[in-house]
Design brief:
Blueprint (H helix, E strand, L loop, with lengths): L12 H18 L9 E5 L2 H8 L9 E5 L2 E5 L4 H4 L6 H21 L5 H11 L22 H15 L1 H10 L6 H12 L5 H10 L4
Parallel strand pairs: 1-3
Antiparallel strand pairs: 2-3
Helix pairs in contact: 1-4, 4-5, 5-6, 6-7, 7-8
The protein binds zinc ion.
Length: 211
């Protein structure tokens, strides 16, 4: 099939409001005033079109994607019950939009999307999605398991709660253009006096009450 898609401009109150609030919060968190070439939202009606657009088979639980630093794609909220494993929930949709837009900010600051636990953890934490997950008893998976969003989100929350937002932003800026673990871990050590290890994060966990 020729990869051709038609785009229509669309007004959707829920999405517009979610976007405005998310952009305001994200600009504030990242201390940025993103005014030009701000991220666009592509609303796609069905999974078949999404899979064709992204050139991969997307899992049924997945409903949002960051395409570039200037675009996110979401499944049309009206079709979410038919086209995914989720139910229609306005709060979840707002958080989803904020999560994907947060990835755009990450890309615009770091110029890459590595490592997975850092980008996903940052989006989960900032989009306030951790209430869907149980606080881990101990960290043991997220550094290698790309799908372990749960631990990654709490790890970033601990980093920001313990050492502050400014240090976190400084660290993110320091990994601009560095897309290899080794280089990123060195910058992490420079900011936090330790490589990102389970031992480091478990120490933060035991010193903080996340419950
Ligand atoms: Zn994500």
């Amino acid at each position: 099939m020729i990869p051709t898609f038609s785009i229509h401009s669309k007004e959707n109150t829920l999405i517009n409001e979610a976007y405005e609030t998310a952009m305001q919060d994200l600009n504030e968190f990242f201390d940025i005033k993103w005014a030009k070439d701000t991220p666009k939202i592509f609303i796609v009606d069905d999974r078949k079109t999404i899979d064709s657009f992204l050139e991969k088979e997307t899992p049924a639980w997945s409903v949002g994607w960051t395409w570039t630093k200037n675009a996110i794609i979401i499944l049309n909220p009206d079709n979410i019950a038919q086209e995914s494993t989720h139910k229609y929930n306005e709060d979840d949709i707002k958080k989803l939009i904020k999560h994907e837009l947060c990835h755009c900010f990450y890309r615009s600051i770091c110029y890459h999307t590595k490592p997975n636990w850092l980008t996903e953890g940052t989006s989960l934490f900032i989009a306030d999605q951790l209430d869907k997950y149980k606080v881990p008893d101990a960290f043991s998976k997220f550094l290698t398991d790309e799908r372990n969003y749960n631990e990654a989100g709490f790890a970033i929350k601990l980093l920001v709660d313990t050492f502050g937002k400014n240090k976190f932003l400084e660290f993110l800026k320091s990994i601009k253009g560095i897309n290899q673990d080794e280089g990123i871990f060195e910058k992490f050590e420079y900011a936090y006096n330790s490589k990102p290890t389970y031992e480091f994060f478990n120490h933060l966990l035991s010193a903080n009450n996340l419950g």
